[in-house]
Write a structure and sequence with these properties.
Blueprint lengths: L3 E4 L3 H14 L2 E7 L6 H5 L2 E6 L10 H11 L3 E3 L9 H9 L3 E2 L4 H8 L1 H11 L14 H11 L3 E9 L2 E6 L2 H19 L4 E5 L5 E9 L5 E13 L2 E7 L6 H16 L5 E9 L5 E7 L6 H8 L3 H9 L16 E8 L11 E2 L2 E3 L6 E5 L6 E2 L6 E9 L2 H13 L2 E3 L5 H9 L1 H5 L6 H8 L3
Parallel strand pairs: 1-2, 1-4, 2-3, 4-5
Antiparallel strand pairs: 6-7, 6-8, 9-10, 9-12, 10-11, 11-14, 12-13, 14-19, 15-18, 16-20, 17-19
Helix pairs in contact: 4-5, 7-8, 12-13
The structure holds adenosine-5'-diphosphate.
The site of adenosine-5'-diphosphate has 21 residues, from strand 6, strand 7, strand 8, strand 12 and strand 13.
């Protein structure tokens, strides 16, 4: 096992990795930007090293600075968290060439899944269902029109290099198509440095259901059930839960097997998530694979009792997966609300000083957060400041516990999305579990403040 791990991230996920390392008796190294001088990950790690100024490009994305920090401190492995360098195959290659172990999949798996148009092709070859669409990137307007005619409107244009809910454009009529392709290509070029786009059938009210997988370097792969992530705004998840209110045991098994097949097709190891869209009739389609730990991994940990981050570290150190598929049971129900530093009505970011903070406790509550009273949320990074998770015997109890937790959470000085979460939790449709990815759009029209 490693003696020292460097965490190439910040915020709650950096703390999450520190917790796992502490449980395992591993020393930790935090890296931080000048904006994160007072951040908790710096305080809780055994060592810390400043890697540059506030902008991510000069700090958390600064490969030479991070590699140097690992060398200076004698860390043997790097945990990338999510975002930043977590899905950057070049970073992994550089780290490995410096004899540093990357806690995640191989650079090759990441490359294969990172190009979404290519991943679609790989999935088709592996027999994993995908939505009708183009065979790889679109090379001409004529091809785009031909594909759209064949699969029918509406369609969605996606950037091959897209991610984080960006680089997508829904097209409802053929007249819009030409313009939309050109705009999508130039937007993708600017945002990702890669103008490639592809076309997929657009489902108007699907559910987003994803499968957590875990595999070791000997080819053992299991799945840990699903997470329902349909409560999203602008393709960004707001609330996640496990199990999904609609998945039958049969569908869970089918989707789990498909996710394992998807992982096998790229010789995948470590933790990963295969995202699917699920239609009303239970048909499911591969959307993409996230080749890292995800923000919402905690809900799976709550229902399975398995520590995913510890397993990530063990697998990276070469240990075999001792968990067997038959041992994986989902117990009770877990929910997660992503708390953002933003106005709950306008969604405008609200960085600034947290004057008062109290984390709720009690049965079935888990909070992953890196904020405290007196902490100033910097404007530079992601606005998510806490993940509140609850676990209950069933969905009803998990919801009741979430309402109790959010009601008793004190986070003052800045605006947060807590009031919005409380409204959603009170919503009839949400409570009945009857929703699709369109939920938020309709909800925001009917919600009263
Ligand atoms: P990202 O990597 O940016 O998160 P995804 O491919 O995972 O992009 O898609 C994000 C969200 O966009 C999905 O959860 C879903 O709500 C919506 N979406 C993506 N593709 C489709 C589609 N073909 N039909 C309907 N909705 C889609």
């Amino acid at each position: 096992m490693f003696e020292k791990v460097l965490i190439a991230n910040r915020g709650e996920i950096a703390l999450r990795v520190i917790w796992a390392c502490r449980d395992m008796g591993i020393k930790t190294v935090a890296v931080y930007s000048e904006a994160d001088k007072f951040a908790l990950h710096r305080r809780f790690a055994d060592e810390d090293i400043c890697i540059g100024p506030a902008p991510s490009a000069q700090s958390y994305l600064n490969v030479p600075a991070i590699i140097s920090a690992a060398e200076i401190t004698g860390a043997e492995a790097i945990h990338p968290g999510y975002g930043f360098l977590s899905e950057n195959s070049h970073f992994i290659e550089v780290a490995e060439s410096c004899n540093l172990c990357f806690i995640g999949p191989s650079s090759n798996s990441i490359r294969m899944m990172g190009d979404k148009a290519q991943a679609r092709k790989t999935m088709i070859a592996a027999g994993v269902p995908v939505l009708p669409g183009s065979d790889g990137p679109i090379s001409s307007q004529e091809e785009a029109v031909a594909v759209a005619k064949k699969i029918g409107m509406p369609v969605i244009i996606k950037a091959s290099a897209g991610g984080g809910g960006r680089g997508m454009r829904i097209v409802r009529t053929e007249d819009e198509l030409e313009n939309a392709i050109a705009t999508a290509q130039s937007e993708a070029e600017i945002a990702f440095g890669n103008g490639e786009v592809y076309i997929e059938k657009y489902l108007t009210s699907p559910r987003h259901i994803e499968i957590q997988i875990l595999g070791d370097q000997n080819g053992n792969l299991i799945h840990l059930g699903e997470r329902e992530c349909s409560i999203q705004r602008r393709h960004q998840k707001i609330i996640e839960e496990s199990p999904s209110p609609v998945l039958t045991a049969k569908l869970r098994k089918e989707m789990g097997l498909a996710a394992i097949k998807a992982a096998q097709a790229t010789n995948y190891y470590n933790a990963g998530t295969v995202e699917f869209l699920v239609d009303d009739d239970g048909s499911f389609y591969f959307m993409e694979m996230n080749t890292r730990i995800q923000v919402e991994h905690g809900v799976t940990e709550l229902v399975t009792g398995i520590d995913l981050v510890k397993w990530q570290i063990r697998i990276a150190a070469g240990e075999a997966l001792t968990l067997k598929q038959k041992d994986i049971k989902l117990t009770g129900h877990a929910l997660e609300c992503r708390i953002n530093a933003e106005d709950p009505r306008s969604f405008r970011p609200s960085p600034g000083l947290i004057e008062h903070f109290h984390a709720p406790g009690g049965p079935g509550v888990r909070i992953d957060s890196a904020v405290y009273a007196g902490y100033r949320v910097p404007p530079t990074y992601d606005s998510m400041i806490a993940k509140v998770m609850t676990h209950g015997a069933d969905r009803k109890e998990a919801i009741a516990r979430m309402k109790r937790a959010l009601d008793l959470m004190i986070l003052e000085g800045i605006s947060t999305s807590i009031p919005l979460h409380l409204k959603i939790l009170d919503d009839d449709q949400f409570q009945r579990g009857e929703f699709s990815t369109r939920f938020m759009e309709d909800f925001l029209k009917r919600v009263s403040w």
